[in-house]
Structure formats: structure tokens, C-alpha cells
């Protein structure tokens, strides 16, 4: 077993404590990773606060992990000691169902094993990236291109793939008109990806305060949804609206901005249920959809694409002692746009 230092929450909303856990011995297909950076995702906060229920405590959050290979199992051929690697939201799946076989492990019919706040197939709890080291089976490790710093790469392993995957799935590219709802931890990456894919990109935000930043990320147009005229001006305009916010929207109003056969895709998860009229869908053959991160092959594709197109999150690197305050700032929308923990401070 390998002992490692971690940040652990003993119970819901408890302050983080520095403690140690044991990682499993290397199996033939395992990789031991020396973690350098771990991003903070809003889902870490939901989990650590047990807002979604079913939390497994003590909890070590973190599923945006970037580091360096320290050791490999006897059957590992794809990675070697010293390689720059990442781990995202999942660390195992059955590998046999139709979704695993097509590279959509997140939809595994047996139930994907999440990086933390989950149980592996032996029933052991999983512990995430607020940790100095982690052991992961090689199928769930991705290579981080040299063009990406490990600090900026870490949020791409959740926020990046969460926004890239639906854009690819709905075939966004030249000639397509896309609206991104929100300029936050997800939204500022969605703008960059949609722009790099060749779409005409419109940003929809509550006010005009983030216009200059949105244009800097690659947006062609920017509108404030606090202005009711926006929904009239943009009626029947978009092929795809990607909703990145976790607040409830006036779904009917946003559906009215879709063209015939357009789709409103949700990647943000509000606490309360949304409501809409079915006629908002019927009258334009429109679709309302959701998307859950992406599989391992697509995550590697996303990292390569980000490196090629100079796409990176805007980050604030913090020490391990600041994580509690960082959580408060995320809840208060006081971050531009992702916190990343420097694990050397743990």
C-alpha cells in the first residue's frame, strides 16, 4: 500500500483537514501518479456539502487531476515513468457494455466508478485529487500535451470535456450558429471551443459586465438576457444553445431562440426542476437535451485540440490551506474562472 497526504472532509460541510490515506498496491494495469495540480469543480462543493445526498465520508474530492507518472504496473505499455498525465471524472467502468466499447464510459451500464465519492467494484470508497498521489487503471489515464501547462490542463479534465463533448456530438462547426449561456467556469471554455470549431458564437449573460471578456475568448456577439428585447431579437436564430449555468432558466424563452431542429443542451445542473411547455418543442421540432462530460477517447481528443488551438481556462492557483475560502468564493461566483490547487502546498 502507498500512503499519501490528502485534504479530507470528515462530514458534510466540515472544514478540510490534512490527513493521510492508503492507495492500493499497483496492479498489472495500474499507474501511480504524482499529482501536481487538482482543479476545484462546483460539483466538488455539492458533494462535500452533501447537497446531492448519498455522500461517502470522509471524502477527498477532486476529479481534475494533472500530474506525472511515478510508477507503472507490469502490463502497462502506453505510459512510462515521467509522462505528463491527467485523470478526470471516472476511474473505472465495466469495459464490456456497448457504451464502454464505443468510448462513452460515462454511460457504462454497470455503473461507472467515479474518481471520488463513489465505490469501486470491490466496494471500496474512492478518493480524489486533493491528494499527493493516486493509483488509477491505465484505461482511465490521458496524456497531457507538452503545449499545456499542468496547472491549466487540470480544469480541462472536467470543465473542458463537459463543454467540448456536446459541441462535437451536435456537429458544431463552420456555418453553425451557437449560443453559450453563461461566462463562468464552463462557459468561458465553451466559447473558446465553439470559436475554434468554426461556429458563429453568441454569448448570453444576465448583464453586459462580461462582454469584453467574452469577446476576448472568441465570441462574435454578446447579449444581456436581463433585457427582454434580447429574446425577440434572437428569435429562431440558433442551431444549438449550450446552457452552462446551474441556475434555473425560463426554458420556453430560450427554446424560442432555436431554429427548426435546434437543440438546447444542458450541462449545468440547477438544484430545482425546470419547467417548459411542450409546444415550445413541437412548434419548431426543437429538442431539449443534456450531456455528461465525455469518454476517455474524446477527453484525449479534447486535450489535443486545446493544445493545438491554444485553448486554456483562466485560473487562480491556490494553496491547500485556501480551499475552504475558495469554496465560499465559488458559491458567491467570485472567481475568474477556475481555482486550481497547487498540490505541492499539501
Give me the count of strands.
17
Largest sheet: 7 strands, mixed
The ordered string of helix (H) and strand (E) elements is EEEHEEEHEEEHEHEHEHEHEHEHEHE
Percent strand equals: 25-35%
Describe this structure in words.
By secondary structure, the protein is an alpha/beta fold. 24% of the residues lie in helices and 26% in strands. It contains ten helices and 17 strands. It has helices spanning 42-48, 98-101, 150-169, 187-196, 211-217, 229-233, 251-255, 279-282, 296-308, 323-331, and strands spanning 2-8, 17-23, 30-39, 65-72, 84-87, 90-92, 113-114, 133-137, 142-143, 177-181, 200-205, 221-224, 238-243, 258-266, 287-290, 315-318, 338-342. The strands form four sheets. Strands 3, 4, 5, 8, 9, 16 and 17 form a seven-stranded mixed β-sheet that branches. β10 (177-181), α4 (187-196) and β11 form a beta-alpha-beta unit. α3 (150-169) crosses α4 (187-196) and α3 (150-169) packs across α9. The radius of gyration is 20 Å and the shape is globular.
Amino acid at each position: 500500500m502507498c500512503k499519501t497526504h490528502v485534504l479530507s472532509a470528515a462530514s458534510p460541510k466540515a472544514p478540510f483537514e490534512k490527513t493521510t490515506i492508503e492507495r492500493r498496491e499497483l496492479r498489472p494495469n495500474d499507474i501511480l501518479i504524482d499529482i501536481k495540480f487538482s482543479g476545484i469543480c462546483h460539483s466538488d462543493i455539492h458533494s462535500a456539502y452533501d447537497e446531492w445526498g448519498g455522500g461517502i465520508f470522509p471524502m477527498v474530492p477532486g476529479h481534475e487531476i494533472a500530474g506525472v507518472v511515478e510508477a507503472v504496473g507490469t502490463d502497462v505499455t502506453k505510459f512510462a515513468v515521467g509522462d505528463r498525465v491527467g485523470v478526470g471524472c471516472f476511474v473505472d467502468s465495466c469495459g464490456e457494455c456497448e457504451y464502454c466499447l464505443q468510448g462513452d464510459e460515462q454511460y457504462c451500464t454497470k455503473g461507472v466508478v467515479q474518481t471520488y465519492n463513489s465505490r469501486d467494484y470491490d466496494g471500496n470508497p474512492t478518493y480524489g485529487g486533493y491528494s499527493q498521489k493516486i493509483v488509477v487503471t491505465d484505461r482511465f489515464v490521458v496524456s497531457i500535451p507538452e503545449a499545456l501547462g499542468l496547472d491549466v490542463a487540470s480544469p480541462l479534465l472536467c470543465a473542458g470535456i463537459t463543454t467540448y463533448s456536446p459541441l462535437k456530438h451536435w456537429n458544431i462547426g463552420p456555418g453553425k450558429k451557437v449560443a453559450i449561456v453563461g461566462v463562468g467556469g464552463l462557459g468561458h471554455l465553451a466559447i473558446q471551443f465553439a470559436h475554434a470549431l468554426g461556429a458563429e458564437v453568441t454569448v448570453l449573460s444576465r448583464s453586459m459586465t462580461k462582454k469584453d471578456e467574452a469577446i476576448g475568448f472568441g465570441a462574435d456577439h454578446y447579449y444581456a438576457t436581463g433585457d427582454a428585447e434580447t429574446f425577440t431579437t434572437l428569435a429562431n436564430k440558433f442551431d444549438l444553445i449550450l446552457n452552462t449555468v446551474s441556475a434555473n432558466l425560463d426554458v420556453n424563452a430560450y427554446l424560442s431562440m432555436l431554429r427548426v431542429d435546434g437543440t438546447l443542451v444542458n450541462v449545468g445542473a440547477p438544484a430545482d426542476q425546470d419547467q417548459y411547455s411542450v409546444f415550445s418543442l413541437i412548434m419548431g421540432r426543437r429538442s431539449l437535451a443534456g450531456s455528461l462530460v465525455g469518454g476517455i477517447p474524446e477527453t484525449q481528443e479534447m486535450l489535443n485540440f486545446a493544445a493545438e488551438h491554444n485553448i486554456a481556462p483562466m485560473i487562480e492557483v491556490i494553496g491547500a490551506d485556501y480551499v475552504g475560502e475558495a469554496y465560499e468564493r465559488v458559491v458567491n461566483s467570485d472567481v475568474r474562472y477556475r481555482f486550481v490547487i497547487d498540490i505541492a502546498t499539501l
